[in-house]
């Protein structure tokens, strides 16, 4: 059996490039930017008033002038008004562009206005005040955002501001989600006493939605001919198959043998971990990938966040995120030679420290806790006892 | 001028209840649950084998028996098979329900199978091993999720598992987003040297998408008759108006007076903060609310996350989140009697401590940084100097 680290390396060696496509910027939220965005001009593009008031020539003020004749009123967006005479000023609004003949802006609060003149109150005035200078934030052709950014609302705003209304983004993989198991019935039906309702498919689909992947969901009963026929068609039509169930040692666990019969080469089966030990992973022709998770909902959830999501983010070339760590809040005893992923509730204390309270410590994997917990804490394989106050990595899932 | 804290209190005193509606669970992602979900039966609903292997009566093993005749093979979902004779066992698959006549499960790895019999290898067997007992995770009618949860993929899976295919969720407010300013031109056009492209509308709309609010975006030129006509219609058709621009002291800042003419009562105008000082907030007839932010994109972003989002989450009765804190990584000098919200990049160190590196320390508010920063750090009003190592609250925006 391989370790979690080895499994992670094998999976990361199988990243795929799905190419690039162009989308309208308003439809690009949560897609992955595949180009560099540059400033189309200086930012701000002109010397810009940051308050409402008047603009004047500082030398006039320095020479003792305090009252200025208003030559014109200039709104934002208008062609800048020049002053030509000593003692003149321009009344202007926040966002207005300054002409070269003015170099200082005084806000209304510091002025008395009457009869077309503005008189400066007894306040200190500094040269260049209340001006956001051309190019202070960015110069034309400066880089504003790079490939690998997940497109956020702020990035959409940035694209709008530089007129980049079509964006190159990474294409998404076509994903099929396939759950298995005769005992799993549709959610709208009433199960017999020995059946359960299906939940893995909709859960996986919902997680992929946050990457804008619209996955198809299938369910397969434990019939090897049916499984073979559906898997064969899915391997032709999709880039990635996410499966749940059918990978243990049971007599009706047909998935690995059917996949291998269809040319999917096993890259590993079983990892020294709990939950999720029977995870099977394979590839066909260096192209299609099959992540066949065990059927337990907690196992599916753990394998998805520990293996599939990092694979997806690497394939989409999403800028890598720093790992997160938290301080364990309870003692845990886990007497198995498996790497234990424990569900934890994260909280931040008022000193900026992230703490992790384990929801359960016996490894049984109650899936109802997934609604209230925030992450799996990855406890090291080499130890069986974990103490309050120790710090370990966490894999956040909400 | 009021403080940030006072502004927050006034806004939080204006929460609204938009009611409840029912949605299909597969369409409920990111909506807010408005009912309690209960277990429809015990979880697990039966004593469940957690491995593939055989089930037997532990007393037989205790009495020295090691070889057992396989009476039948039982898949998950099938009616449990009883054993009636001493020395019999049932071969069963992970997920199968145990009959009352068996109480211990032994996995294939610990068995030799031949001629319809299973012989236990030299391993220790404990009573009740490899069984997930009925009701261990939840009892029938136990609470599984409460009102106020933002519906996550895990919660959708939980709803599926209990057959709750229609969910009561909070209705969403109807939101209109209105930007103003003659100098703001559409993103697909080429601005003159003194114009800028519009970005606030699409940015706000994208943020609201994560709450599944589909807001309408409008732009108003600085024409008080036009502004009055559009605002009047919007006040009738929407619950909330989010505006940007037109609230400063400029001659073309018509927004506050037009709103007041339309019966929107000002609840405050201007807050001791940077950015976002000229924020105007009002209500009509205790129903419609107007958040009129200043036009600068950084001001809009800050006011949105510091005021509107907390208002929205309170109105939707989203379970409140603990505030977050981070350790400042640089010295900041801010010589104004305003509360300074500085853009920071958050990182977690390997001791679980959240650190905040300020992207800029002069308060100018370069909006291009919003793409690379993660939060605003709220620095206290009473101080002007902030030192590396000090801990302050952060308002995360990505």
TrEMBL record, chains A, B:
SMART domains: MoCF_biosynth. Pfam families: MoCF_biosynth, MoeA_C, MoeA_N. Pathway: Cofactor biosynthesis; molybdopterin biosynthesis. InterPro entries: MoaB/Mog-like_dom_sf, MoaB/Mog_dom, MoCF_biosynth_CS, MoeA-like, MoeA_C_domain_IV, MoeA_C_domain_IV_sf, MoeA_linker/N, MoeA_linker/N_sf. It comes from the Bacteria. PROSITE patterns: MOCF_BIOSYNTHESIS_2 (PS01079). It catalyses: adenylyl-molybdopterin + molybdate = Mo-molybdopterin + AMP + H(+). Its cofactor is Mg(2+). Keywords: Magnesium, Metal-binding, Molybdenum, Molybdenum cofactor biosynthesis, Transferase. Transmembrane segments: none annotated. Residues 176-315 form the MoaB/Mog domain. The keyword Magnesium applies. Its EC number is 2.10.1.1. Catalyzes the insertion of molybdate into adenylated molybdopterin with the concomitant release of AMP. Belongs to the MoeA family. This is Molybdopterin molybdenumtransferase. It comes from Niabella pedocola.
């Amino acid at each position: 059996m391989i370790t979690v680290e080895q499994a992670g390396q094998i999976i990361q060696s199988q990243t795929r490039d799905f190419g690039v496509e162009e989308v309208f910027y308003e439809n690009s939220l949560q897609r992955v930017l595949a180009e560099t965005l540059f400033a189309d001009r200086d930012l701000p593009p002109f010397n810009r008033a940051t308050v409402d008031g008047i603009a004047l020539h500082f030398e006039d003020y320095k020479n003792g002038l305090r009252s200025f004749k208003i030559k014109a009123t200039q709104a934002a967006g208008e062609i800048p008004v020049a002053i030509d005479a000593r003692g003149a000023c321009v009344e202007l609004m926040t966002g207005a562009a300054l002409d070269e003949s003015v170099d200082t802006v005084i806000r209304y609060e510091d002025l008395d206005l009457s009869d077309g003149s503005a008189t400066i109150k007894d306040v200190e005035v500094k040269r260049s005040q209340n001006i956001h200078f051309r190019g202070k934030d960015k110069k034309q052709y400066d880089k504003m955002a790079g490939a690998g950014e997940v497109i956020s609302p702020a990035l959409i705003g940035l694209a709008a501001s530089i007129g980049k209304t079509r964006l190159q983004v990474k294409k998404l993989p076509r994903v099929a989600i396939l759950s298995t198991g005769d005992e799993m019935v549709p959610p709208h039906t009433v199960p017999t006493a020995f059946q359960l309702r299906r939940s893995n498919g909709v859960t996986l689909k919902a997680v992929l939605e946050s990457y804008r992947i619209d996955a198809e969901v299938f369910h397969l009963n434990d019939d090897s001919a049916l499984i073979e026929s559906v898997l064969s068609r899915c391997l032709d039509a999709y880039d990635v198959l996410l499966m749940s169930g059918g990978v243990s040692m049971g007599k009706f666990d047909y998935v690995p043998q059917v996949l291998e019969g269809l040319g999917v080469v096993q890259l590993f089966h079983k990892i020294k971990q709990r939950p999720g030990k029977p995870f099977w992973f394979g590839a066909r022709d260096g192209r299609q990938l099959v992540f066949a998770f065990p059927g337990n909902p907690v196992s599916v959830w753990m394998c998805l966040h520990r293996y599939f999501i990092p694979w997806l983010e690497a394939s989409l070339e999403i800028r890598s995120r720093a790992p997160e760590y938290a301080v364990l809040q309870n003692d845990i005893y886990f007497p198995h030679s498996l790497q234990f992923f424990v569900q934890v509730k994260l909280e931040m204390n008022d000193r900026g420290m992230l703490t992790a309270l384990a929801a359960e410590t016996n490894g049984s994997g109650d899936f109802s806790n997934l609604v209230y917990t925030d992450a799996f804490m990855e406890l090291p394989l080499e130890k069986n006892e974990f103490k309050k106050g120790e710090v370990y990595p966490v894999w956040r899932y909400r």
